[in-house]
Amino acid sequence: MRYVLATDGTECSLKAATWVAKNLRIGPDSELFLVYVFPLPPEVETYSHLVCLPKDASDERVAQIAQPIMNRTREALGDLEAKVYDVVLVGNPPHDIVETATTQKADLIITGTRGLSPRTELCLGSISNAVAHRALCPVLIVR
Q1: How many domains does the chain have?
Q2: How far apart are CA 56 and CA 141, in angstroms?
């Protein structure tokens, strides 16, 4: 089996990682892709004259943010027998999570949720909700 675990280092995403470790039977022949997407504003060009935003995951600023997130996520996962890969991207989190799952032919995407009220979620949006609506494979949202 191939899994994608979306992470951003928040308590909710670490809760999802802990859930994976406790509830999924991930064996040595399984692959788990930990996906962190450094979010960019939708209209990047609008901000280009104000601030220098990273273009890809090779940017040192992205690595400084991503590494502790990946470390905490791996810690929450504990000792899995599966092959675990770090995937760090820069862009649109829902789009890039789904794209990674599609490219890696994932059987399941796992993501956490902040547990916002429906009204707040409607105004602010939700990465887990967007992933669930765009994914080509099942999505497990851990609350």
Answers
A1: 1
A2: 27
Tell which residue, 5, 69, 14, has the closest CA to residue 32. 5
For the range 70-75, what are the long-range contacts, defined as Cβ-Cβ under 8 Å and sequence gap of 24 or more? 70/7, 70/34, 70/36, 72/9, 72/14, 73/5, 73/7, 73/9, 73/13, 73/14, 73/17, 73/34, 73/36, 74/34
Q: Which residues, listed in sequence order, are joined to residue 85 by a DSSP beta bridge?
A: 33
| pTM recorded for the entire structure | 0.89
Neighbours of 28 (CB within 10 A): 8
Q: Contact, 76 vs 142, CB < 8 A?
A: no
Domain ranges, residue 48: 2-142
pLDDT digits (tens, 9 = 90+) for 40-60: 877 666 666 667 788 889 999
Cβ(34)–Cβ(84) below 8 Å: yes
CATH of the domain at 46: 3.40.50.620
Average pLDDT, the chain: 89
